[in-house]
Design a protein that fits this description.
- Helix 3 (114-125) links the parallel strand 5 (102-112) and strand 6.
- This protein has an 8-stranded mixed beta sheet, sandwiched between helices. A 3-stranded mixed beta sheet has the order 8-7-9.
- It is 35% helix and 24% strand.
- It has helices at 51-55, 82-97, 114-125, 150-168, 193-203, 215-223, 250-259, 275-296, and strands spanning 3-11, 14-22, 31-37, 60-64, 102-112, 129-135, 175-179, 188-190, 212-214, 237-242, 264-269.
Length: 298
């Protein structure tokens, strides 16, 4: 069993909390480390069960909550800002490089969905990252607008500036449901059956999960265009795609992958965004962990 340690990282404006896992019997010798990030709304503890797949491959694993979520500090709660998360991630990397039990020259990133997009951007900008695995990444935030019906999108577009005004007056941030069935007057971010099934399986006993995001999260998601940074990713990349993905359109991910200079590899599974995770998650964990272990050993 992996040995876990509760960790805290002070970053500008917040304290981030999570766990660092190490292979049993590794002692205090410096280890390669992989930082795991889940998809939108997924708290750190939803990924704790998969840590063993990485520690079995000889890697240390860090999993932490983004600011404003889970057990980390920050307000408003349930606000997800990808650019801010990437800036925080770079501070977290700095913290790791100061630990004697971490090999600062062997740091990898691994992420699902928006966590995969964060990992791509950070690998493009931070030369301390030596390998990156990105699962089903939404590489264009603007495309997220297509997930909503036209009338719902118009409703959300009107809510965003109104919420900005309300927060400036000191009122609480407006939230919408993250997963669920669309209902009149109650927008939801993801309504696909595959996504709901995967989330229910991942978070059914996760106390820190909340099925909501702030309306302003949408504004921040729309800003993110990771595909603009494709040519800057020069470390080894493994991209895992879903052949019929419309949540994070696979055509856009393939196009971005084609512009990454390399070295690079791609795995593609049949199915929709969350469907490949529901059907192939253990295999994906094993294959990506082994790839990271090999890559970070060089």
């Amino acid at each position: 069993m992996p040995v876990d340690e509760d960790v805290e990282f002070t970053v500008p404006g917040a304290i981030l909390r999570g766990k660092l896992f190490r292979p049993d019997g590794s002692g205090d010798r410096p280890l390669p480390v992989t930082i795991l990030q889940s998809g939108l709304g997924g708290p750190a503890e939803s990924l704790y069960p998969v840590a063993r797949g990485f520690t079995d491959a000889g890697l240390a694993v860090l999993i932490y909550d983004h600011r404003n979520t889970g057990y980390s500090d920050g307000e408003p709660r349930q606000q997800f800002d990808p650019w801010q998360q990437c800036r925080d991630l770079r501070h977290v990397i700095t913290h790791l490089t100061l630990r004697p039990d971490i090999d600062a020259d062997r740091i990898g990133l691994w992420g699902i969905s928006i966590g995969g997009a964060n990992s791509l951007f950070t690998a493009a900008m931070d030369r301390r990252v030596r390998a990156v695995v990105s699962l089903i990444p939404p590489v264009s935030g603007w495309t997220a607008r297509t997930l909503q019906a036209a009338d719902t999108l118009a409703e959300l577009d009107a809510l965003i500036p109104a919420d900005r005004q309300a927060q400036l007056r000191g009122e609480p941030a407006v939230t919408i449901r993250l997963h669920g069935k669309p209902e009149p007057g109650s927008p939801v971010m993801f309504s696909d059956n595959e996504g709901q099934e995967f989330v229910e399986n991942m978070i059914h006993d996760v106390p820190s999960f909340r099925n909501e995001i702030t309306v302003s999260t949408l504004d921040y998601l729309y800003e993110m265009e990771v595909r603009a940074y494709a040519e800057r990713i020069t470390v080894p990349l493994l991209m895992v795609l879903a052949s019929q993905d419309t949540v994070a359109p696979v055509e856009e991910a393939r196009e971005m992958y084609g512009r990454v200079p390399g070295p690079k590899e791609v795995m593609e599974y049949p199915g929709q965004h969350y469907e490949i995770l529901s059907n192939h998650f253990p295999e994906i964990i094993t294959r990506t962990a082994e790839w990271l272990a090999r890559t970070l050993s060089h």
